[in-house]
UniProtKB/TrEMBL annotation:
<feature type="signal peptide">
    <location>
        <begin position="1"/>
        <end position="25"/>
    </location>
</feature>
<keyword id="KW-0732">Signal</keyword>
<dbReference type="Pfam" id="PF00932">
    <property type="entry name" value="LTD"/>
</dbReference>
<dbReference type="InterPro" id="IPR001322">
    <property type="entry name" value="Lamin_tail_dom"/>
</dbReference>
<dbReference type="InterPro" id="IPR036415">
    <property type="entry name" value="Lamin_tail_dom_sf"/>
</dbReference>
<protein>
    <recommendedName>
        <fullName>LTD domain-containing protein</fullName>
    </recommendedName>
</protein>
<feature type="region of interest" description="Disordered">
    <location>
        <begin position="460"/>
        <end position="481"/>
    </location>
</feature>
<feature type="region of interest" description="Disordered">
    <location>
        <begin position="156"/>
        <end position="181"/>
    </location>
</feature>
<feature type="domain" description="LTD">
    <location>
        <begin position="40"/>
        <end position="156"/>
    </location>
</feature>
<dbReference type="Pfam" id="PF13585">
    <property type="entry name" value="CHU_C"/>
</dbReference>
């Protein structure tokens, strides 16, 4: 019996997989033992399909006396006795016990600690443990004939955030490539690992590869993909629509290509595109593109938001803010975030404290985009952090988030000097924030961030900062609520716009809600918004002391404050913008027609 591939892509995937990876399955970066390659090459046709795979690895023990372990998973339909099988690292090997039988769809765990092995019948103690290195190593599983069943050459750099002490690397898809870093992630389990259980990051790979990062390297463009890719005769690469030549593509890192294109000093944003690429699972991508990130120059990345006086945890809801910083790309090009960090002012001895960020690799900001810097210990992605949960962040914002391995950023309430720097030590931006920059009309600024008004004006000018007008008190990794590159209204010439007008709040899904959009000449106004009928009688109070910013929107559902339906007719929307600190005041009024459809 033999099987045939049913399409060009599946044939090519199989051939490239065998040619590319099988001879190097023991660990592709090490060929110190030629017999490894020779033995595996001789046994390619004789060996059964891979059914037992390395599924989880805890290589960095929590503390002395705590376990390391390797978890295996049986993808097959029959139980497999592992007697005579070998578990190896790059230097030593350990023979698996005869009583180790792995059931179909089941797990077995092997460890160097007896106490850990005694906790489960699925866990076996190995006296001669290979001893996997914290700096990266090979993990090899061989069957009794010496053929490699599976192998992984892991590296701490595989994942961001990196696996901390007592936190395992988990495989996402057992059937996907073992040595593709994208197929592994740190465990999300509260205990740091899931020995003998389904992995917390388990996900069947059904998506084609995408470009995730591109940068200039040695006058060429290096492009990183979300997973290992296959280069086929139909694969094409281009920059700004012009075809470019593939300069480098290596088997040891098939998620990376280098293109022979000299970007020079182009004054336009470079966009790299890859067409007709596929992964080793056969998932195809017709086209994927992204901007080429440049190294930031001073002023390209600037501080854009500061939450220094966060709200404490709510005893009823458990919700809590945390300090955070936001930076933004003020340039007209995409810029890299790799290697950036925060430092404080220099002391009398010329020393300074700094905040290292754990996960800047392969991250960038497009022009005008923002990134949030948040403190959290442990491998907590932004959308699950205190800040992310409080502000309802989506998982998509993780790309524009940078974690500091600490519980606080030490942002004092009285003001502080902060420097934004890149890996060479060059200062990108400097700020000495001041509580006096807050909207003077707000008495209690706890839980309200300082937001920058314009990315292009002075970082240390108080007039370029004010209190966030967002309902939750801030806009981390989002456009600032008071953002304004220019004034949208001259002094004393604010305006409101009502849409739709007429509107018909009859719950038919058409024109049911009145949108009240406003534009003002200053960001520090507080708003009062009232609805009156044509006789001047108060119908509804929509807002009191509402932090306005330069512009925004409120809505009216057409009902009274008591929830009663209003009659059809003309109503007056009355908006008062006032600034109690300097005494300025502006009143805006517009009429709206409340109507209903006739049957």
């Amino acid at each position: 019996m033999f099987s045939v591939c049913t399409s060009f892509t599946s044939c090519l995937s199989l051939l490239l997989y065998l040619a590319f990876f099988w001879p190097h399955a023991a660990f592709s970066n090490s060929s110190s033992d030629p017999s490894i390659v020779e033995s595996e090459s001789r046994n390619v046709k004789e060996s059964p399909p891979i059914r037992v795979v390395i599924n989880e690895l805890l290589y960095r023990r929590e503390a002395a006396g705590k376990p390391e372990f390797v978890e295996l998973f049986n993808m097959g339909d029959e139980p497999i006795r592992l007697e005579g099988w070998l578990l190896e690292d790059s230097e030593t090997s350990s023979r698996l016990p005869g009583e180790a039988v792995i059931q179909p769809g089941g797990y077995l765990v092997f460890t160097d600690q007896k106490s850990f092995a005694n906790k489960s019948e699925l866990t076996f103690y190995l006296g001669s443990w290979p001893g996997f290195s914290n700096a990266g190593d090979a993990v090899v599983l061989r069957n009794p004939t010496g053929v490699t069943a599976d192998s992984v050459r892991y590296s701490p750099e595989w994942t961001e955030p990196r696996a901390g002490p007592g936190v395992s690397l988990e495989r996402k898809d057992p059937s996907a490539l073992s040595h593709d870093p994208s197929n592994w992630a740190v465990s999300l389990h509260p205990n740091g690992s899931t020995p003998g259980e389904i992995n917390t990051v388990f996900e069947v790979d059904r998506r084609g590869p995408t470009a995730v990062f591109a940068r200039v390297q040695n006058n060429r463009i290096e492009t990183i993909f979300s997973e290992f890719i296959l280069i086929t005769p139909n694969t094409r690469f281009s920059v700004n629509g012009r075809p470019v030549v593939l300069h480098e593509y290596q088997q040891a890192g098939a998620d990376r290509v280098v293109l022979s294109h000299n970007p020079g000093s182009a004054d336009t944003e470079l966009i790299v595109r890859a067409e007709n690429i596929t992964d080793f699972q056969g998932n195809q991508t017709v086209s994927t593109e992204l901007p080429v990130a440049r190294k930031p120059a001073p002023g390209d990345l600037v501080f854009a938001e500061i939450m220094y006086h966060e709200l404490p945890e709510d005893t009823l809801t458990g919700a809590a803010q945390s300090e955070y910083l936001e930076i933004a790309n003020s340039s007209s090009f995409s810029v890299s975030l790799e290697g950036i960090y925060i430092r404080e002012s220099t002391d009398s001895d010329g020393n300074y404290r700094y905040i290292l960020l754990t996960d800047t690799r392969h991250k960038y900001l497009s022009p005008g985009e923002q990134a949030v810097i948040y403190p959290e210990t442990g491998n907590i992605p932004y959308h699950l952090s205190r800040t992310g949960l409080y502000f309802g962040a989506s998982e998509t914002l993780n790309r524009r988030s940078l974690r500091a391995e600490r519980m606080t950023l030490s942002l004092v309430n009285t003001g502080k000097e902060l420097y934004l720097a890149e890996s060479s030590g060059s200062i990108l931006d400097f700020i000495h924030y001041d509580p006096a920059w807050h909207n003077p009309n707000i008495v209690d600024t706890r839980g309200i961030s300082l937001e920058r008004i314009s990315l292009h004006n002075d970082s240390n000018h108080g007039d370029n900062w004010t209190s966030s007008s967002a309902e939750l008190g801030g806009t981390p990794a989002e456009v600032n609520s008071v953002n304004q590159s220019r004034k949208i209204a001259d002094a004393g010439s604010g305006r409101i716009t009502l849409q739709p007008n007429p509107f018909s709040p009859d719950a038919d899904g058409i024109d049911d809600i009145l949108s009240i959009r406003y534009e003002l000449d200053q960001p520090d106004y507080l708003l009062k918004v009232r609805i009156y009928d044509r006789y001047g009688r108060l119908i509804h109070k929509l807002a009191d002391s509402f932090r306005a910013g330069y512009s925004g929107e409120l809505q009216w559902d057409g009902y009274t404050a008591a929830g009663n339906q209003n009659r059809i007719g003309i109503y007056i929307v009355w908006v008062e913008a006032y600034h109690s600190a300097n005494g300025s005041r502006e009143v805006l009024k517009e009429a709206v027609v409340l109507a209903r459809r006739l049957d």
